[in-house]
Each structure stands twice: as C-alpha cells, then as structure tokens.
Amino acid sequence: QVQLVESGGGLVQFGGSLRLSCAASELILDYYTIAWFRQVPGKEREGVSCIMADGSTYYSDSVKGRFTISRESANNTVYLQMNALKPEDTAVYYCAADPEWRLCLSYTLSSGYWGHGTQVTVSS
Questions:
Q1: Which of the four pLDDT bands, split at 50, 70 and 90, describes residue 19?
Q2: 44-66 burial, b if ≥16 CB within 10 A, otherwise e?
Q3: C-alpha–C-alpha distance, residues 22 and 2, integer Å
Q4: Which alpha helices (H) appear in 3-122, and where do they start and end?
Q5: DSSP annotation of 16
Q6: For residues 9 and 89, what is the distance between their CA atoms, to the nearest angstrom?
Q7: What is the pLDDT of residues 62-117, one digit of tens each?
Q8: Which helix (H) or strand (E) holds 39?
Q9: 101 vs 1: CA distance, rounded Å
C-alpha cells in the first residue's frame, strides 16, 4: 500500500529553521512530481513548493528565498528546508505525489497521493 509519511515538524522560534521530510513506501518518488502544501484551520490548503521529476523547483511568493525543496533518491525522500521561519508559517504541512508535472503549476492533484501531515508551529 502506498504511503507518504511526513516528519520533522515541531515548535520553533521566529527566525529559526526546520527540515521536513516526505518519505514514501511502495512508491519511487523520483518518478513523481512532489509538492508541499500547508493548511491552517479555517483556510484552504495552500501550495508552498514543488519539485518535478526533472528537478525543476517552484515556490510560492510567501516562501521564496526562505524554503528549499530537494530530493534524496537513495532514501526515497523529498525534503523541505525551511529557514527564517515566521509565525505566519505556522500550519500543518502535507506532502503530495502526483505523476503529472502540472501539479507544480496548479497545485491540484490529478491522481496522486497525500501524506497525513506534520505540524509546524513558529512562536513570535
């Protein structure tokens, strides 16, 4: 059964850093477009960053210059390095895998998979 598992969330102070991981079982992430989303209660899920199978990366304006998405093929894992964190980055962060590269343009899954999320809390 395909599973995406996020980890690395936690509580961090303003200006701090966290690295989120998205690990997969029964799925080779290198063949998929992987996106990170975040969601705050009462708001819609927001696409944050995305990496295509060819390595092309995309970032929302709110995180550009602070977050970095990357792959580690050996561990079948995608990372989201988050630096200079702000209280407004507080959210549950989800990773998603989709065979369609258009995920990086629309942040809408066509036929992919979701993880269960990891909480990130940034204190002021």
A1: very high
A2: ebebbbbbbeeeeebbbeebeee
A3: 13
A4: 103-106
A5: -
A6: 12
A7: 999 999 999 999 999 999 999 999 999 999 999 999 999 999 988 988 889 999 99
A8: strand 33-39
A9: 23
